[in-house]
Amino acid sequence: MPRYQTILLAVLVLASVGMGAALWHMRERAHQQMLQGQDAAPTQAPAVAADAQATLVVAYDDDNSLREQAHSLPLPAEDGARARAILDKLLEIYAEPDAAHPVAGGTGAVKQVFLLPDPGSGSESGSQLAVVNLAGTFVASHPSGLETETLTVLSICRTIHANLPRVAEVRFLVDGEPRPSLAGHADLTRTYLVSDAIQTTNDVQN
Amino acid sequence: MATFYLFRTLRHNPKPYRSLAWQLALLCAAFPLAAQTPSSTPPAPSAPVLPVPSVARFVVVLDAAHGGDDTGGKLNDNQDEKAVDLAFAVRLRSLLAARGIQVITIREEDRTLSPADRAGIANRANAQACISLHAAESGYGVHIFTSSLPPSQSSARFTAWKTAQSASVTRSLTLAGVLNSALTQAGINVTLSRTTLPGIDSMTCPAVAIELAPERDSSHKIVSEPDSADYQSRIAQTIAAALLQWKTTEGKTEASQP
């Protein structure tokens, strides 16, 4: 094969590989933009909803305590969306600069809350299992540590129960998938019994 | 006596060899029996035998959390938690060994261990205290955690792996109380809590997780970081003293048991 043909072939091959790489890069960028667009979708409770009283069980790192706070916020009527709006407010408080339990993330940290009949109890009891789907970005930015992770999990469990008393158990997902721990410590594979969470808090505060 | 019987047989029997084999076999069989037969001489009077007090075996298991692929959290200067946990464990091990306490360390180098591996090592050690060591950049002072499992009084031979700690939760809470008292008396800010940790929940020994958080002043400003050698030494010395006290407590408990 003449030398000019070899060079031409090599140039064509290189151009093909380069165009393939450019196409792959553009595809990934478009995918990321689409995901960011989804993240930027409104996650707040609709402002047209009437304000209602919600009880937030807020964590405090300095004395390792959980304290109830009453807040008035617009809440949807549907229980799952209501739980999500309340948890969003709770995690917004943690994202504030001078928070007593600082956790970055805030708005959009809770993707969904699903309420299911509690499989562990009889249908007549009416108790529910809440499945909280956390955003991966929130979990990735959560500080690592036994105390801080335990307080976050307990405050979520107790806040749901304070506003939806039929919820007896809570499970966690991250971006729709099971995950071993929140940030290396708090176990997210287990089902949290709300009664245990309350008992644990009482043990700590007594 | 047996020899006399053999000679008598030889003298009265003209063809003794057939029965001689039987005689020898009987003699061999009778010898061990004779060795076990109590002597006819009365035993000399001796002093009443007192039960010998067994030397109490006191073992502490130290578990430097994380390791290998599991780096744990990030501390100041982007330092991995696993390295701080290991340094703290080594420091505490030396202090305990100097006080004559037998120490088993679950991790002495940077390697990955599952919670089940850790619990397995701790359970085989049959220890009187199992301590999982952590460090964090959030919070204040020292955080002591025990399992959130409810205590069980079951005396079953086998227990469920994931809830094995429930039989020891009461002792774990007592151990946490001893550590809390010692650290508080040393002027260290302590918080007690309960949590779910897969490794701790599968341990059958009295188990606590100790998390070393920054030491802060009254205006919440950090005075000592968890990776400070001086701070770690101070905490480790207090924990070592508390474990000596726990050794006494455990010894009394064992002595009171029938």
Which descriptors apply to this entry?
heterodimer, A: about 210 residues, alpha+beta, four-stranded mixed β-sheet, 5 helices, 6 strands, elongated, B: about 260 residues, alpha/beta, six-stranded mixed β-sheet, two-stranded antiparallel sheet, disordered N terminus
Q: Layout of helices and strands, plus pairs?
A:
The complex is a heterodimer of chains A (206) and B (258).
Chain A: H1 3-39, E1 51-60, E2 65-74, H2 79-95, E3 110-117, E4 128-134, H3 136-140, H4 146-163, E5 167-174, E6 192-193, H5 194-205
Parallel strand pairs in A: 4-5
Antiparallel strand pairs in A: 1-2, 3-4, 5-6
Chain B: H1 2-12, H2 16-36, E1 59-64, H3 81-98, E2 102-105, H4 115-125, E3 129-135, E4 142-147, H5 169-185, E5 190-195, H6 198-201, E6 207-212, E7 215-216, E8 222-224, H7 229-256
Parallel strand pairs in B: 1-2, 1-3, 3-6, 4-5
Antiparallel strand pairs in B: 4-6, 7-8
Helix pairs in contact in B: 1-2, 3-7, 5-7
